[in-house]
Amino acid sequence: MSAPAGQDQGGAPLLDVHGLTVEYATGRGNLRAVDGASFAIAPGRALGIVGESGSGKSTVAMTLLDLLGPEAGMSAERFTFEGEDLLDPVAARRKALRGHRIAMVFQDPGSALNPAIQVGRQIAEPLIRHRGMTQTQAAARVQELLAEVGIPRPADVAAAYPHQLSGGMKQRALIATALGCEPRLMVLDEPTTALDVTIEAQILDLLEQLRGKHDLSILFVSHNLGVIERVCDDVCVLYAGRVVEQGAAAQVFAAPAHPYTRGLLGSLPRPSAQRLSRLTPIPGRLPDLTRAPAGCIFAERCEHAEAGCGKPQEPRALADGRTVRCWKAEAIAAGAPPTQAMAEAPPDAGPAAAGAPGTTDAGALIAVDAVGKTFRLGGMLAGLRFDFSGGFPLRTDPPKVRAVDGVSLRVRPGEVVGLVGESGCGKSTLGRLILRLIEPSDGRIAIDGHDVTGASVAALRPVRRLAQMVFQNPDSSLNPRQTIGQIVRRPLELFGIARGAEAQAKVVELLGMVRLAPEYAQRYPHQLSGGEKQRVSIARALATSPKFIVLDEATSALDVSVQAAILNLLADLRDRLGVAYLLISHDLSVIAHLADRVAVMYRGAVVEEGPSAQVLAPPYHPYTEALLSAVPVVGLKDRAAQRVRLKGALIGGGAVRGCRFADRCPRRIGPICDTETPPVVEPAPGHRIACHLPLEALRAVPPVFGAAAPHA
Amino acid sequence: MIGYLIQRLLTVAGILVVMSLLVFGITQVMPGSVAHMILGEFATNDQIAALEQTLGLNDPWHVQYWRWASGFLVGDFGQSLTMQRPIAPLILDALGRSAALAGLSFGFVAVIGLWLGILGAVKAGRFTDHALAIGQYFFIAVPEFFWCIVLIMLFATTLGWLPATGYAPMSDGFWRWLSHMVLPVGTLVTGLIAHVSRLTRSAMLEVLQSTYVSAARAKGLPERTVLWRHALPNALLPAITVLAVDVGILFGGIVVVEVVFAYPGLGRMIVYAIENKDLPLMQAGVLIVTAIYTMANLVADLLYAWANPRIRYGRSVA
User: Fold this and answer.
1) I need a surface site. Which of A36, A627, B50, B244 has the fewest CB within 10 A?
2) Do A160 and B317 touch (CB under 8 A)?
3) Which candidate in A101, A114, A164, A169 is best for mutational testing of the B interface (most B CBs within 10 A)?
């Protein structure tokens, strides 16, 4: 066995863990959540732990501070921090490190702050406890800390309750809490996963800056390879509780040596302007961790598996200092990197890609004209949490919120239109408006020539058949009491498409379309994995042979390896059935991968729209440029130097004067942005940008994805 | 917060108006007139007509309702038919005695119920929790009147420690007063403590699994700070609502307990009024109980709002 990567970098490691195992007793035997994980972090280094759900990555993070609770059985061969042995039966030594020598930042800033206590008091707690400060001293220090993490008006924020802060502000406050006692090691468990990509970029910048200033060591847990690559020096890839590959991040991402790492990288959609036809998902699902196989844990999903993989795999050092748990590692690392293989794939030629882009009514399947939606809020109950369709932000002051403001959009048959924007921009509301799941306040919507704006429920029926929807969370969009067969069959009967044996046959056919075996018809949703459930949702949407499907964050809840399979499936169905999609996502990579045209939404309006390749390359709307700059993309770490950053967060609602993006715009010209509605410029047919900047200035902006961008 | 208060007060007023209409409506749908009941079955038609005239029973119903309801607003609850006395002082006396019973019971329910709930959540899955759960289900399942009988048999008949029935005013001495309270209160609280502690336990368990509790532990705070400062205030929010609903259950229980223990409270007075067809007395009693229950829920809503910063402070800062 080799020394973990961190040990090579100068002197004794800060944290040294060897053979960490965490087990839970279950009714079916012991579940091994973490199995013999070894890693080390040298002072000042950042180690990333990456893996999909069920990999045990959060368990590793929680173990460091003994936060797992008594039901988790933890053991290790070696576990030291700053040379101190932390292996004691009651974990008292690890508990003693909490909050001052090791600090932790959790995933969802919305739930990691106590809703009943003022933010300032929460930040002060460790200071009072570990530094012996008085309330007054701590309060003064809290202000300094809040200022250091880039919070304007620290006094107001310290006095606020968590619900009064935006997600990004909350995460900054939590980072301030962690910094308070000047810890040696900061453990961050998916700290940006719940945040918008622009806010994520701000937080990652902040971490980079704090790390340099305080000589912090970092343990960064994430499912997002791009984020890990940006933050970390070393990386540790976890699969089913075992470390399958670890080493310097640059090496691991450039030439992955374990088939699982390769699979993860191959599953990643990338927001480059160049369209890639297919992702390479990882087939199968996580093994049952109560009956883990004796041999390689990844073997049953591995494309390189052969007889030799049945033997137990131990971590092995490669010549370049990496450790890999695969006996074929050298051969695999020498193979072409998955990124390159993808880049060479032929560009996609969907049915719509060939046609001339435009918004003429001719042939438009979906025609949306100046559609708006105003939500009325209960004025007297101001302060309550209002949760509209798309996770609307907390709105209190104005009694009304203009969620969608005069949007016009065309979707042609067989075309995939991507709708992208931060949470609260109104993209989900627009999707629901088009299907008339909610009533538009103004404007006109037509589906396949039928005006649905004022249509009665009866008049909508034939249109409902044409236009379907797939929701984000398959756990809550599939009825848990119905079998898959019943779920898929229901629309067939509802629309009188098929009955009895004919319906039965049709269900099997639909399941086949989403590549599920006929036996699935007898199963219940809880017996399916997340990806399989989303396939069922798609099959249900396809049951009425629709011409149009709204995909509202349909892959956002899935792991990348599963998401890749669903994206491939959606692409195939589009090609085979000629169905058009409105692909709503916060993830530009997903949009870029699948969409023929992209509409970028900000505060209820489309600020840029056009064919994907043109939207993803200059000239950009400044907001599009900022969104693209914010996405962490594996293999494009250098891009970080020249990116633009957005300040603040999206604040919705209210009437808009001038440009709606003016208050956050990095390329603001002057007062004109606040007073005049920006003109729409059309740099190419079908590509429209609403901005005051002259087109030449927009064209002069360097591409965000350097060489990858085509020459438009 | 002021807007919220006004809205809640308007709602309460609305509920009271509707309830009073329903209670008043009883006189309108009852067979025979009130004059019949007062004069008895041997009254002549002339006598009845004369009394109906005096009582204003020939006026339209809304005039009668207004006369009756406006009387309540100034503290005039009308005359008891059977006792020939103004109702207000009768009801107030009975209410005071019931309030002593209810207040004492409610205090025990709140304190012991919450405490046992927290204990169950902290010891979740261990012996204490299981033992508590068995006891809780048992006390929820067995009805109150059963405990009335068991307690009387044990403490009054067999042991002779406590009086079986009746009431003694404070002026007879605190201990004498208390001795009459023990058995009724004991009967009332068992089921409710079990109920409140069950719900507190689940609220507390949910809070203990929240990220902010993990985050508090990760800060290195001692477990008791985590429990009392971080977990409990959040777990209390649902408990407040439950306690308000339990006030209603408490009143239902009080009727039974007052009758069995011959305790001269409001519950027993209402039962008496119904048995003796004393309509004005019954109307007054029912309306008072409704008002108390509505007020308890109002207090709970306000407490909830006060304890919940999301309602207390709406405006976002950043």
Assistant:
1) B50
2) yes
3) A114
Superfamily of domain B87-312: MetI-like (1.10.3720.10)
Alpha-carbon separation of residue B145 from A340, B139, B148, B149, B150 (angstroms): 80, 12, 5, 6, 9
Closest CA to A703 of A200, A273, A199, A230: A273
CATH for A5-113+183-250 (3.40.50.10860, 3.40.190.10, 3.40.50.300, 3.10.580.10) = 3.40.50.300
Q: Which helix (H) or strand (E) holds B45?
A: helix B45-55
In tens digits, chain B (318 residues) has pLDDT values of 666 777 778 888 888 889 888 888 877 776 666 777 777 777 788 887 887 777 777 778 888 888 888 888 887 888 787 777 888 888 888 888 898 888 999 899 989 998 999 999 988 888 888 999 998 888 888 887 788 888 888 888 888 788 877 888 878 888 888 888 888 888 888 888 998 899 899 999 999 989 999 999 999 999 999 999 999 989 888 888 888 888 878 888 888 888 888 888 898 888 888 888 788 888 888 888 888 888 888 888 888 887 788 776 665 655
What residues does each domain of chain B span? 31-76, 87-312
Q: How many CB atoms lie within 10 A of CB B79?
A: 16
d(CA A632, CA A629): 8
In angstroms, rounded to a whole number, what is the distance separating the alpha carbons of residues A627 and A664?
12
A374's tokens: 């105003």
CA distances from B264 to B99, B156, B184, B272 (A): 11, 19, 12, 10
Q: Are B257 and B101 in contact (CB under 8 A)?
A: yes
Which residues of B have a CB under 8 Å from any CB of A? 3-4, 6-7, 210-212, 214-222, 225, 229-230, 233-234, 307-318
Of A103, A115, A157, the CB nearest to B317: A157
Q: CA A144 → CA A164, A176, A214, A527, distances in Å?
A: 20, 9, 15, 51
